[in-house]
Structure formats: C-alpha cells, structure tokens
Design goal:
Strand content: 15-25%
Order of helices and strands: EHEHEHEHEHEEEEHHHEE
Shape: elongated
Helix content: 40-55%
Largest sheet: 5 strands, parallel
CATH topology of the largest domain: Rossmann fold
Number of domains: 2
CATH class of the largest domain: Alpha Beta
Structural class: alpha/beta
Number of strands: 11
Distance between the termini: 42 Å
CATH superfamily of the largest domain: Response regulator
Radius of gyration: 18 Å
C-alpha cells in the first residue's frame, strides 16, 4: 500500500486530508512541522510527501531543499499561496508538483498515482550524446564531461523524453502528458524544470546550446 507523509501545521486540515487519503486507499500519516516531517521521513520513508509552505519554524521551501539533499521521493506542495513567485520557488527548491488549496482529493490522488507510476524508469534506448552530455536512460545516469550530473526524478524523465525525440519540438502540453502523466496541468511545471536542467547541463544556461526553446511551440534537445 502506498504511504503518504503530509506535512501540515493546521490540525483540522491535516486530519481532514489524512482521512480523505485513507479513504482513497493510502497509508497516510502526518507531521505538524518541517522538523517533524524530516525526522519521520528519515525514520519511516514514505512513497510520497505532501507539504504546506507556511509552517512554523522552518518553512516549506527549506524543508523541500533538505528532503532533496538525500531523498528522491516525489514531493507535492499543497498550499493556499497561489502567487507565481511561490509556485516557481517551490518547484526550484525541488518539488515535483504544486496544488492550490482547497484541495480536490480525487485530483490530488490522481496526481499522486501519476507520480508513482513514473518512478525513475525511462525508455530503454541506447545512451545518447549531445556534445559533452551523455544521457543513459537504461543506466539511469546523466553525465557531462564524463562526470555524473545530479538530477531529480522529474528532471531525469524530462531529459530522457526530450532525448528520445531528439531534434523534434515537444510542446509543453505534450511534456506534461508524457513526463508528468497529466492530461491537463500548469505549464510552469515544464518551464521551471527546463530552467533547472539548463543550469546543470549547459555551459551557458542563458544561451543554451542543446536544450533550446522554440518560442510559442515548446522545447527540443539538439546535438
């Protein structure tokens, strides 16, 4: 049974979401602070983490960053804050998705299932080279100048999807469907993850050579 850790300081919201998740078939347990959530995830790792941003003490952004240092668990932000800056900042910190309160539990459950289906697997195509960049979907590795590049689960799948269709433009909606498993969704998810990848794989992220934007169309990976 899939386990979900919910980090939420509002007791009523936490209890309501935990009960709703259990009705959806999850094993759900909660934490009232970032510190408690980090401790619980270290001691009893969950399959997914849901986290609010406005937490006492350490905020959600820092909690996400700390989770990401040594854990590839899928992270979904569940927050009342719907400002673009907050969404982008949470994704840049390492979150995989962002859901604005009030939460529709069926939608949240569908997103959790999509995140788990993805895992870290990718199409088993031969290793591909883009200049000094090597992408090995089968080995689950990305290398630059022969050195490993640390990428998140989502970044890895996004890069593999673009590599599988090298030279072809994929729209943001196509990438949302193929990488995130969403039929509809916020295209900022794609933009932020592309930006993060460029910081890791491009010599000059402001003027990318390999992961390029086709204005109004989408993105492509080129040699």
């Amino acid at each position: 049974m899939t386990a979900v850790l919910l980090i939420e300081d509002d007791d009523r919201i936490r209890l309501a979401l935990l009960l709703a998740l259990e009705e959806e078939g999850y094993t759900a347990y909660g934490a009232g602070s970032a510190e408690e959530g980090l401790r619980r995830q270290r001691e009893t790792p969950a399959d997914n983490v849901l986290i609010d941003l406005m937490l006492p003490g350490m905020d959600g952004f820092e909690c996400i960053r700390q989770l990401r240092r040594d854990d590839d668990v899928p992270i979904v932000v569940v927050s009342a804050r719907d400002d673009t800056h907050d969404i982008v900042a949470a994704l840049e910190a390492g979150a995989d998705d962002y859901v604005v309160k009030p939460v529709a539990i069926k939608e949240l459950s569908a997103r959790l299932r999509a995140l788990r289906r993805r895992g870290r697997t990718a199409p088993t195509v031969p290793a591909q080279f883009f200049g000094d960049l090597e992408i090995s979907a089968e080995a689950g590795e990305v290398r630059r100048h022969g050195q490993p590049v640390a990428v998140t689960r989502t970044e890895f799948r996004l890069l593999c999807e673009l590599a599988e269709h090298a030279g072809r433009v994929l729209s943001r909606q196509q990438l949302l469907s193929r990488v995130w498993g969403y039929e509809t969704g916020d295209e900022r998810l794609v933009d932020v993850h592309v930006g993060r990848l460029r910081q890791k794989i491009e010599s000059d992220p402001a003027n990318p050579r390999h992961l390029v934007t086709l204005r109004g169309l989408g993105y492509k990976l080129q040699r």
